[in-house]
Amino acid sequence: MLQGKKTYLRPLENDDIVLFKKWYNDQEVNYWANGAWPLTTMLGEEEIEERFFLTQDSSDRYIVLNEKKTPIGTIGFRELNLPARSATLFIIIGEKEYWGQGYGTDALRVLIDYLFLQWNLHRLTVDTWDGNHRAIRAYEKLGFKVEGCLRQARFVQGEYRDAIIMGILRNEYESLFNRM
Ligand SMILES: CC(C)(COP(=O)(O)OP(=O)(O)OC[C@H]1O[C@@H](n2cnc3c(N)ncnc32)[C@H](O)[C@@H]1OP(=O)(O)O)[C@@H](O)C(=O)NCCC(=O)NCCS
Description:
By secondary structure, the chain is of the alpha+beta class.
């Protein structure tokens, strides 16, 4: 288990399927996560088990726990590129009462430390849509910089919205937070 100041990260367990069912079927959570509800979510337990627990979906995924070790969300990375030593992070704090209290930033910091310091990655990417100011602010607090905008790449509740791509290099993160 990885430990931050307010959060812990642990591997998935079978009991988490019901939590994923709750989070991935929540309209508000998915509105912020990808604006795509219910197109790409609305998953039943069997589909969740197949997608996240049985098949290798080419992402590494963990559960975010709060201080009391209660699950509040999921986090992970995908698009691992070994020669370039880069990956793309994702996070969903599915328990909405925990939004805006620093849990997401803390969990991301734990994962970033792990990927830069243990996996020896060189670069990390995050992306969201242009209306998700809370996510953009959380990423900025960690040192991510906006690197690009994919015009009208997302469709959010009937409107085309831009996707915002942000990135950070290991040396930038180390100099910002005095990590070695
Ligand atoms: C995005 C997410 C991971 C952020 O985690 P969090 O714990 O809520 O965020 P934090 O409290 O760590 O930081 C949020 C920051 O955004 C700010 N913020 C909140 N709402 C905001 C808004 N509408 N506009 C601008 N800033 C906002 C907060 O004040 C805070 O900044 P501060 O510390 O400088 O005051 C979490 O909210 C979440 O999972 N949301 C649903 C799914 C999602 O959006 N996933 C990520 C996109 S793919």
